[in-house]
Amino acid sequence: MHYKFGEPAGRYIGPGGNYHVYSSTISDVPPEGFEELPVHKMAPGEFNFQYGPSTGGLVESAGLQFITPGEMINSVQVDPTYKTRKLKMKGLDIERAILTVERINGFHASSNTIAFILAVEEALGMEPDEEVQKARILQLELERIRSNFEVLKRMGEPAGFGVPVNQIGFLRERVSRIISKAAGHRFFFGVNSPGSALISNSGLNEKLSEIRKEFDRIFSGLLQSKIFLNRLQNSCITKGKFLTGPAARAAGLRYDAREDSDSLPYDETPFVPVVHEDGDIFSRMIVRGEEIFNSFDIISSLGTVRETPGIKVEKGTGEGSARVESPQGDIFYYVKVNNGTLEDVWYVTPGTLNVRAFMESMKGNLFPDFHFNWESFGIWISELGVEIQ
Amino acid sequence: MSNFWFGEGLRKGRKTERFPHAPPEEPPLWPSVLEGSTDTFCPTDAIKDGKWDSGKCISCRLCMPEFRPTGKQDTFLIKKTEPALKKSFYLYKLDTGACGACNIELGTIFDPQYDANRLNIFITSSPRHADAIVVMGIQTEGMKEALKNAYEAMPEPKLIISLGTCAISGGILGDSPMSRDEYHIEIAGCPPSPYTILEAIAKARGE
Ligand code: SF4
Ligand code: SF4
C-alpha cells in the first residue's frame, strides 16, 4: 500500500477508524496539541441555549450549544451525532458498497466515491487509466464549483443580500443541470466504478464559460459591497494548524490534496492552490470564490473526456488507501478487500477538523456572526454522522 | 453599491421557468419514471413481477437495459390534498438521516429557475407555523424524538410529506422514519429532482 502505517509524518489530515491520518502515514499517534478542546465552565451571568437539532436555519440536523452572557459567544459545542446513520459496508462486494459510499454525503458524492474507488483500485492492484483519471478530475472540479456556489449563496442569506443570493443560486442550479447532462445524475450517483467513469464533457466547456462570465461579475460586485464585507472581515478568525481545505488555505496554509496527494494527476493541470492569510470569514469566502475560477481553468485544460464504460473487476485481495481534495478539504479512504469483499473500510472526513475550527473561531465573536461563520466552513453533517458497520 | 445590485437584478430579467404550468425545460434522466417489464436484479427490490416501485428506486442504473429512464418527472404519489392551503403553504423540513442531496434539492425549488415562492410555497423554522412536514432521510435514533415533537406541534390540518427514497422506504441505507401508510404525499427519487418536488408540493393543495 502506498500509505504506510507508522510514526506521524506530514501534515495532519484527521482521525478515522482507530487511527490518525497524516499526509504521508497512518498512525495510532495523535498529533501533539490535538487533545479535546477545553470545556467552557459557565461563569456567573452566562447562560446556555440549544440551537437545533432541527431548525430552519440549518440545512441538516445538528445540535449546537451556545454559552453566552448576552451577545458575545463564549463557547459553542457542535453535536453532529443526532442523525448518525449506521451504514452496513463490511462484507459487501465493491459494486454494492459504492451505492452506500455515494450516499455518505450526497452533495460531495464524487469526492467520497472517487477516494473510495482509488483505494479499492490500489487494493486490487489496478493501474488507474489516464482517461478515467481525467474524468475523475472533471467530476471533482464540477462538484467543487457547485459546492462553492452553495457556500457563497448561503453566506449571503443571513445578510438578506437577495440579488446576489438568487444569482448565485441560479448559477449553482445551472451547474447541477450541466452535471446531469454530462453524467446522467445531478449528484454523480451511478457514475463511478473501478476502472470506469460514465461522464463526458461534450458541449460542457461553452456552457461553463458563460457561467464563469456571469460569476465574474457577481463576485466583483460582492467584493465591492462594503457593508457585507464589513461583517466578514476580522470576524471568527482561525489560524491553528489543525485545518483543512478552504479554511486552511484562508489561514495562510498551503494545504491541498491536489498538491500533496498523488492519487490524481493534478500536476498535469493548471491547478494552483488559492491561499489567503487572515483566517477570517472574509478570507474563507474569497478562497471559495477564487477557487471557482481555478476549477474552470482545470476543467477546460482536460481536453476531451469520454465515458469509459464499466469493466469486469477481478476478485482480488489487498489493502489500499487514497486521499482527494473535496470542496471541504481532504477526504481519505482506507479499504481492505478480501476476495472481492470489503473486509474493512474507514474514512477521514474534513468535517472533523472543520467543526473543531468552527468552534474555536466562534469564541469571542457575536451571535449575529454565527450563521456567516458556520456557512463559511461548508460543513456537511451527513459525512460526520456515520457509523460504518 | 445597492445601485449596482438593483441594476444587476434588472439586467438579468426574469429567470423563472413556467413549470409546473409548462413542461420541464431540462428534466434529468436519473431520477425519472422508469419503463420496462422484464424482471431483473434491483438492489432495493424496486422491481418485482416486472413492475417498478418509484418509492424504492435509488437511481443506481443496475436494471439497465431491462428498465430505462423516460425523463418523466412525475415520480410522486398524492394520497391526500388540502385545498385550504392554496393561499399559502408553509413547509417544515425535518432531516431524520439524509445524505444531504435531498436537503439541497428541497432548497433548490426556491432558486430562480423554480421560484416556489411564486406558488405561495414557503419554508418555516417552526412546526407550529407549518402546514406540512417534509421528512427526509432514513430513521436514526437521535432524530426520533425531534420527529415526534414536530409532528405533535403542528396544527391541523397537517400534511406529512416524505421526500426521497430513504424517507419513503429506507432505500439502500436503512429503515424509513414512518410507515408508507402514514405519509400523505410520497415524493420519490434519490434525490427527487426540483421539478418533481415543486409539482408534488403544488399538487398537495389540490391544484
Ligand atoms: S435504478 Fe436501481 S434501484 Fe432503481 S429500479 Fe433500477 S436497479 Fe432498482
Ligand atoms: S433518498 Fe437518496 S438523496 Fe435522499 S437522503 Fe436518501 S440517499 Fe440521499
Topology:
The complex is a heterodimer of chains A (389) and B (207).
Chain A: E1 4-5, E2 12-16, E3 19-22, E4 25-27, E5 47-51, E6 63-68, E7 72-73, E8 75-79, E9 85-87, H1 94-101, H2 109-123, H3 130-156, H4 162-183, E10 192-193, E11 196-197, H5 204-222, H6 226-232, H7 245-249, H8 257-260, H9 281-300, E12 318-326, E13 329-338, E14 341-348, H10 351-362, E15 365-366, H11 370-377, H12 381-384, E16 386-388
Parallel strand pairs in A: 1-4, 9-16
Antiparallel strand pairs in A: 2-3, 3-4, 5-6, 6-8, 7-15, 10-11, 12-13, 13-14
Helix pairs in contact in A: 3-4, 3-9, 3-11, 4-5, 5-9, 10-11
Chain B: H1 2-12, E1 34-35, E2 47-48, E3 51-52, E4 68-69, E5 76-78, E6 89-97, H2 101-108, E7 121-123, E8 132-137, H3 144-153, E9 159-163, H4 165-169, E10 185-187, H5 194-203
Parallel strand pairs in B: 6-7, 6-8, 8-9, 9-10
Antiparallel strand pairs in B: 1-4, 2-3, 5-10
- Structural class by SSE content of chain A: alpha+beta
Give the helix proportion of chain A (percent range): 25-40%
Provide the β-strand percentage band of chain A: 15-25%
Described by strand count, sense and barrel closure, the largest sheet of chain A is: 4 strands, mixed
Contiguous uncertain segments of 5+ residues of chain B: none
Strand content of chain B: 15-25%
CATH topology of the largest domain in chain B: Rossmann fold
